[in-house]
Design goal:
It is a single chain. This protein has about 425 residues and is of the alpha+beta class. It has three domains: about 170 residues, Beta Polymerase, domain 2 (2-Layer Sandwich), CATH 3.30.460.10; about 90 residues, Hydrophobic Seed Protein; about 110 residues, no CATH class. About 50% of the residues lie in helices and about 10% in strands. Helix 9 packs across helix 12 and helix 15 packs across helix 16. The chain is elongated, with a radius of gyration of 27 Å. It starts with 10 loop residues before the first helix and ends in a 21-residue tail after the last helix. About 35% of the residues are buried. Bound molecules: cytidine-5'-triphosphate (CTP). Cytidine-5'-triphosphate binds next to helix 9.
């Protein structure tokens, strides 16, 4: 991390934020997406506060490339809408302004929010969560409602300073992940934060503060009560950020794994396979949910479905279904994704059985088969006993492809059925 010259210790005590002027931090406007800059400048010119918020400030201070640039402002969503013709208000939980630009580009603008007082909360439980998420506040309140100190830093377009209300600069420098407020309370409010703690620690290579670890230990049981849609999204974030293997290992250590994957038996090879999938994503290959799912399940699948040449594919299908269905039900994963994951498992089963069985040439020509080969190649790095069989299959795939691209056989002529004679009666 580029060195920060001035660190004010514990700004929480004074109620005054630590402000780093432009000369004392490394963020340059050249590093900020031009569309986000446009949005920041226009809000600012119209007299509103306009900050870069969240992960982008953290990443820029760490010398990393941010995934996206979110904007925080004191303008309400409706005020934002009047300022930008290309603005769309979205979100049920959060009322957000999306400013869309050509090329499918998007800048998300959120009005500063705060956690409401007990007395302000609606009595109706159904409205409770929605209400809590949507009470407008000032920048300091907005910082304090965020999860970790390093995620609550602001970059102010008005004077190019970095503003820290929560001690995030010090934690960035010490490479420590610290919760804003009492982790026990914050995990009770939102148990997904436990998983996010592991994710950020793995992504940034940060040490997790002891208070967080002790709170996870005490509150791990709450994770399974979190919204399954949000958990599913966070699980996919682990894969997108190439930390699925590492985070699952940590989750096992901290007692979160069973909460997260109650229906999937994890074996030591599962962590290895997930790490290989992460490596593949790091090489720039896209990660689909079906591949993530198949990766989570493959070691248990092979354990339950020993590969013998005589074993019928229907037995393998039954095992795959039994492993995939409960998890997909818990997380409302669509049938199409489940079937694609199942096809990856069954494809691996075929490859592990070896060549020379019925349906081989149809299998080799199927458009999905290259994806199965790629997945199986990862598994072969773990189970070396399959390497010879796999080499044999690769030869078959290459020669089959050659047959189709090289000297093409003359197309088979369809034999016409002899025309039926007209019915005698007509
Ligand atoms: N946030 C939070 N609590 C959550 C989710 C998000 O406080 N449960 C806040 C954090 O300030 C976070 C910001 O919203 O930085 C954006 O969240 P997200 O996009 O999930 O993470 P980023 O920090 O932006 O990281 P990245 O986009 O690189 O994944």
């Amino acid at each position: 991390m580029p060195e920060l010259k001035k660190i004010i210790l514990d700004p929480e005590d004074s109620g005054v934020p630590c402000v780093l002027p432009r000369a004392e931090h490394c963020i340059s406007r050249n590093q900020i997406d031009e569309h986000a800059l446009k949005v920041l400048y226009r809000l600012n010119r119209q007299g509103h506060m306009a900050y870069l918020v969240g992960g982008s400030v953290r990443d820029l201070l760490l010398g990393r490339t941010p995934k996206d640039f979110d904007v925080g402002t004191d303008a309400t969503p409706n005020q934002v809408k009047t300022l930008f013709r290309n603005c769309f208000l979205v979100g049920r939980r959060f009322r957000l302004a999306h400013i869309r630009f050509r090329g499918n580009l998007l800048v998300e603008v959120a009005t500063f929010r705060r956690n409401p007082d007990e007395s302000e909360l609606p009595e109706n439980d159904d409205e409770h969560f929605h209400f809590v998420q949507n009470v407008f506040g000032d920048p300091r309140e907005d910082a304090f409602r965020r999860d970790f100190t390093i995620n609550a830093l602001f970059y102010n377009i008005d004077d190019f300073s970095v503003i820290d209300h929560v001690g995030g600069l010090k934690d960035l420098e010490e490479r420590t992940l610290r919760m804003i407020g009492d982790p026990l309370v914050r995990f009770e409010e939102d148990p997904v934060r436990m998983l996010r703690a592991l994710e950020f620690s793995a992504r940034l290579d940060f040490t997790i503060d002891d208070e967080i670890i002790s709170a996870i230990d005490q509150r791990s049981h709450l994770l399974s009560s979190a919204s399954s849609a949000r958990l599913r999204e966070e699980i996919m974030e682990l894969f997108r950020h190439r930390v699925a293997g590492q985070v699952c290992e940590m989750a096992q250590l901290y007692g979160l794994l069973d909460q997260l994957f109650a229906d999937i038996p994890f074996l030591p090879q599962t962590f290895e396979l997930l790490k290989l999938i992460d490596q593949r994503t790091a090489e720039g290959k896209p990660i689909r949910e079906s591949l993530a799912l198949a990766g989570l399940v493959l070691p248990a699948f092979f354990e339950r479905c020993p590969v013998e040449r005589s074993q019928h594919i229907n037995d393998a299908l039954a095992v795959a279904d039994k492993l995939l269905r409960p998890h997909c039900l818990t997380y409302s994963i669509a049938q199409g994704i489940r079937c694609e994951a199942r096809d990856l498992l069954i494809g691996c089963f075929r490859l592990a059985r070896g060549r020379g069985l019925k349906g081989e040439s149809r299998f080799l020509r199927h458009p999905f088969t290259p994806q199965i080969f790629e997945f199986f190649a990862l598994w072969c790095q773990i189970d070396h006993s399959l390497n010879d069989k796999f080499a044999n299959w690769l030869g078959a795939l290459a020669s089959d492809a050659g047959e189709h691209t090289g000297e093409r056989k003359s197309p088979r002529r369809r034999r016409r059925r002899p025309r039926r004679k007209a019915a005698m009666s007509s």
